[in-house]
Amino acid sequence: MGPFVPDLRGKFNRFLSDIQLLQYLIVFFGLFNLSLCLYEDQVGKFDWRQNYVGKIKFASFDTVSAAKKIIVATEENVVAALNLKSGQILWRRVLEQGCAGHVRALGGVSDGDLITVSGGVPAIVRAWDLATGHILNEWPLAEQNPERLDSPLISFNTTGLYDPERIEDVMWHIKDGTLHHILPTYNGDAHKTEVEVTSYDSKTGEKLKSRKIDAAFISKESTCVLAVPYIACIDQPDLADKVYIQHLYATDSDFQAIPVIQIFGSETGHLSNLESVPGDEPVVSVSRDNGQTKRIIVINTESAPIPNDLSKDTALYITTADEGKVLLQTSFENQVANVAAVELSTFSPIPNLSVSLSHNSIQAPTIVASICPRQPKGTGCRHLLSSEDHSVALLQHSRLVWVREEALANIVAVEMMELPMSDREQAIETEFDQKENFDVDGSWDVVSMMVRRICSQANQLKGLLQAVMGFSPPQSTQRADLVRDEFGLHKMIVAVTSAGKIYGIESKRGEIIWQLRVKNITGFSKASKKMVLYVQRGSRHFPHPPQCALLAADKETGNGVIYTFNPMTGQPLGEVTRLGYKIKQSMLLHVSTDDFLRPIILLDTEDSVHAFPESAKATAASVAKSVYIFTADQETGVLSGFSLAYSTPEELIAHMVWQVILPTKTQQIVDVVSKSTIERVHSQGRVLGDRSVLYKYINPNLVAIVVQGVGSTHKNTLTLYLLDVVSGAMVFSVVHKRVRGPFHVVHSENWLVYSYFNEKSRRTEIATLELYEGKTQSNTTAFSSLTTTVLPIVERQAFIFPASIEFLQETITEKGITSKHIMVALANGGILELPWMLVDPRRPINPEMREEGVIPYMPEIPIQMDAIVNYNQSIARVSGIHTSPSGLESTCLVFVYGLDLFYTRVAPSKTFDVLKEDFDYYLITIVLLALTVSSYVTKKLASRKAQKQAWK
Amino acid sequence: MNSPYTWIPVLLAVILSAVGSELDYDGWLRLRVWHALNKGPMPNFIERGNITVTSVRSGASTVAQAGLKSSELDELRKLAEDDREYRLKASVRGSSGTETTFFTSVPACLVLGSELEDFLTVWLDGAAEPVAVSLSSYGPCSREVPSTQMWTTEVQVRYPEAGPVPDTATYIQKLEREREARERGETKDNRSFLAKYWMYIVPAVIFVLLSSATNPEAGGAGGGGGGAQR
Amino acid sequence: MLIKMAFLTRLVSLLLIICQISSVIGENDEEVSTDRYVIEGKVFPPENAILTGWQLMTHVMANGGEHLGYLREDGSFTISNVPSGSYIIEVVNPNYAYEPVRVEINSKGKFRARKVNLIQTSQVIQVPYPLKMRPFAPFRYFQLREQWRVTDFLFNPMVLMMILPLLLIMVLPKIMNDPETRKIAGTRSFQEMEQLNSLTKYDMPEMSEMITTFFAGEEKQKSKAVKAAKKRQ
User: Which residue numbers delimit the EMC1 first beta-propeller domain (chain A) (predicted)?
Assistant: First the structure.
């Protein structure tokens, strides 16, 4: 037996390792089960998607195809076809993001083609199939490489082309299958200034001809507009006294010069604001000395100014009706839009084509396309209106057919709010409220209390009886379905858009409940268009209405603007407050005033502090000792921390407590990521394999600063600094070499997950950092940044991610017990629910070092298709994901926005606290009943049998 | 052969490659430190001392600073009584020559509680440029005048750690090993059933033989049909 | 010896410099090169799928949307305006998975297409260019709902737990029952009754006893059976 022993032991070890493998498998399969999986019949049950196109840039009615539609190209780089009757998207093509996809021109629709020009230098010309949206051909606007003409691989030479900035000066004209590329060139020498017109076959890209037209009147400061087939120019604003007009295609024509006197009737003043009037006729409009009026010039061989003053704000469009040219003037006053039609030549009004309408979504509209077909009933026009608030509307025969809320394609801030209580619950609330008042007064009137109690309960009973008997419920101010449900799953999504429009969207079906518009506001910085939305008072403080505050910048001055409103009804609460200073930083205070309103603290560019509302200054001062604000300046790289400790109830004072400077010479701040303020961490530590506890470093003041290297030597580096913004102490920093953006960071609990593109290995990677205090906890009750001096232990790991990432966000739940998942917006339109467990930096490389609930390390994170929460409903160009806890601990609500909107709910640890949607109530009832009945019957039978036996 | 120009390229190359990678070369830092002991939002900085970090990588440093006067100690105590912070301004000059000024602060009571012992941490970025100076003190919080008037300052220099990279090498090795193991396993598995499991079968047979030897009647019980079949 | 050393260092330094110069040139080359290329290929439609409109639902993306290509009616696509570099070409279709391909264009305009291997980036398995993208699987976004089947129901542990004792109660005694005693019709029901009673009286110690007797040998069991038969009578 002796010799067998070692061998047996070896076998036994192998057996053990096999068991370990089995354990992995169990954990792994458990993980698959963990991920949220939908059943096919649950499609659309708790999710919805809405598609948008964005603000209209170019539009054209397609009257050629069998199915009438509207072709649009938008600011969001989208080319789409809209249904004429309903406004629904028939097909949509999303072009490249940013500058590379800017639509420069759209044309050819009247000829049955659809040609778009997009991008920078060289621009890409694409020909689309009008009916189906397939591409027919695409070609770049550059010369094909001469030396490689014979090779099968196509390449283009761009060396002969102009500066990328000049693309803004190029004018495009598409007509009869020809694309004209019109570029004024100035060589500094006034006599050599010319307009270069290059014509291409719009479908094949074949260069047809190139001509140069002398245009000595153009200088570098000139403003030129295209009024096909003419080009019209004026000099720089304070010199212009003539409008120059040149025909582009007639070879031998000379330019026309129209002086001020001919346009405005007097010789004084200079011309400004030269604009081309869109439509079917070469017409330009021009105003004098930036005045409030403008006049139009109808261009032909003998151009004629029309001596009628038009308001500067009137939008113009020229359409053809009954063979005559009609000028449509659109004005907007007192929430009413007027389209006044006049005959272009005579200026006599055409009343049957004039419209006036008022609609909540039509704000300062302009006509982007118009068509007046002759019909048996007489001529009627269809106008496509694009409003200042980005909404699109179709007007047909002076009737509004449909409206699209295209502002939602550009959401900049989102909050999800609990719905208010129902009327009945509010009545109960009032009852208790009044009782409290009595207590305060000290007059204990037992009888009246009793009476009130009985009254309210009688009312409840009445309501119940009415509901049971099927009577109509009593009239209510709120919609019956817009009340809080028992699990808090139904919420109000408050979305702020870059157009300054605010929407209230209920979350169950995505219906827009209300909309508001704040005029003349814009984002704090040009690049990000960011606005800030604060919930000052939630919907749990009846009878005080819930209150949201929107912080933005004034469009003209850049000063701060605060707008408060009721997020449930869309009622403004007070006027728009235009502040006299620029907002540098803002924060919502954690304490509230007596009426449950949380004040906003504002730090202006002069480093002085303000409270909003002003009356909350005393409240703010009472907690000022523990209030810290930090600012980060992207341009100077300076981060500073301020304390409000010296504040008095009369005046809030900020003084600097720390300053960190990231030298801009070598680096640039890309992003500053803090944790969610409503986040709660349930478990303080992590149990290791040897049953000891590793305590998490949970610092709510920790902020991650993402820094990108600049300059030649540091270009492709990513540095991440973890900074405690109260004490100003740096906690950790990590640098990645040879990586580039886009960077996305999620910062939560004691970990960070960030993604970047690895240039060296040419793949997207996700790295995680996890911070631990160690085996002992420094302070078991509360964390203080000022007294904690121990630097955390940082676990780190990187993974390969096999797709491009557009956005990252973590899930959040009410109490933080449920495990965290990361919502990953993929470039292919999917929204992936990635368990954090898969990016856990403690995933052991050596399988022997295993801990509980940790899966062994694999360099690549697999994308499970059943973890794609939006299944085949792709979401184009995600710009943000908002997660919000629901009333259920297991469930997190997810709202994805970008060009499309998508809403769903996820349960990262499965729905452990509520029965599943598909729970079979009937089966369990039937089984229970059957069991009861059968036991009863068998009992009877058994006793009968026993009786029989006894008789025998 | 040992003419000077032969060495120039070497030096050049070293410098060039050093700039390209992460904090590969050593440098020095010179800090001038001021502190404010006054109350009020505007700090009134007075000089505290000079610190020279001779080697960035090792963190070796020399600290030269004067002790606190008793009037200053009193001011510090007053700060601590009001729960105010002790503020510090540090101006750092690195090897590259640019000078940057940083602010940092620490609750005054912690400084008193730790007997004027403090830690000054200088954080560098990947290019060895200073990005932050932070002051910390372990405490505990005390509002008493300490027994000493001299600072005990420890200077630390920290720079970014290299970011993690996906560990593909071990994974590939593992795959490789598994593949080999599988191949080996396949060759071994060609053996017959008996050859593979003889070590389990032999004891079982021995056991059966032994038990049947002690009870010869039970020999037929192995059939296992059960007592029900009579 | 010393001379040799110096020579070596010089060689090394030279090498170093060359490396750096070449890397600098390489970088400059990337920035200066203004040539743009066109990546071409064809996407094949998924089999047995509804063919109308699949071109509209599909597009091709290079490096996660940096450059886009759209499908013609026949599935062919071009991605224009691509500078030299390395690109991962993915076909985006919401219902079908396509394998991505890496296309590398060097500064001289030479194309190479290969399989994407994110773990072993140096491994090259070349694929033909112009690209031919074929679907390899439909996406499975949904879990399959379990369908009710008799076998599933029967092999449910709960059901098994109910059925097995039932079998034990109803069938086992019948097998154990002496066929001879069965023939006496008059006492049959009584016997069954008794038998039922005796079965319900079976509890753990008796069971173990039975097992021990079973292991001990047939002899004893027989006597036991006889005893039981006697008891019955």
Answer: 38-148, 190-406
